[in-house]
Write a structure and sequence with these properties.
single chain, 227 residues, 11 helices, 52% helix, nuclease, iron, metal ion binding, Endonuclease III
């Protein structure tokens, strides 16, 4: 098994340094051209791949222009436009409700605070963080998606299990100036190497500092189960 650096902040900094070298162009993979499109894309991305979302939003963003269009469309029609997305009926309702609130409460503009964003339908802290970071250049925290959750635990950076608890734990050890990039780096690494079911530890730039490295370790710290 790999040997993690001590203390945890040293481990976090080394992880970031190595992954930045491995993925120098790491960035958000969702496609959008304005803040509203970003918000909608992130809502749709819950439990759905970014690749699928990008395919769906290509025609969605061509059909709808601005919050008024989403607020006024029949919800069943909007759901039909999203029918290849997981939980498309619920997400259509979230989008329509959020668009209405954006018009009525925020003068047609996507809000720029955590509190206001998380008051929108279907928007939790993770979604709000993405919108703040990429729509408003405001970095208040770390976006904890499934890749960040899995790999941070595997690397021994956190023992927390829930995203709500993982985020503040990581914020204590990840340098603030790379909070945004940390998420993208771990997403890229999770897709390329540190996959959920069969990580390629033999070809991993973090193997020597990863306590879950399956060459020697018996346990996947992400799940707490044996390899």
């Amino acid at each position: 098994m790999g040997t993690p650096l001590e203390p945890r902040d040293a481990q976090a900094e080394e992880v970031v340094d190595r992954l930045m070298e491995e993925y120098p162009d790491s960035t958000i993979s969702l496609r959008y051209s304005n803040r509203l499109e970003l918000l909608i894309a992130v809502i749709l991305s819950a439990q759905c791949t970014d690749e699928r979302v990008n395919k769906e939003t290509e025609h969605l963003f061509a059909k709808y222009d601005g919050p008024e269009d989403y607020a006024s469309v029949d919800e069943e029609e909007l759901a039909e436009d999203l029918n290849s997305i997981t939980y498309y009926n619920s997400k259509a309702g979230y989008i329509k409700s959020s668009a209405r609130d954006i018009i009525e409460k925020h003068d047609g503009e996507v809000p720029d605070t955590m509190d206001e964003l998380t008051e929108l339908s279907g928007v939790g802290r993770k979604t709000a963080n993405v919108v703040l970071q990429h729509g408003h250049d405001v970095v208040e925290g770390i976006v904890v998606d499934t890749h960040v959750q899995r790999i941070s635990r595997r690397l021994g950076l956190t023992e927390e299990k829930r995203p709500e608890a993982i985020e503040p734990d990581l914020m204590e050890i990840v340098p603030e100036d790379v909070w945004q990039q940390y998420t993208h780096l771990l997403i890229d690494h999770g897709r390329a190497t540190c996959t959920a079911r069969n990580p390629d530890c033999d070809d991993c730039v973090l193997a020597d500092i990863c306590p879950s490295e399956k060459g020697d370790s018996d346990i996947d710290l992400a799940s707490g189960e044996a390899w």
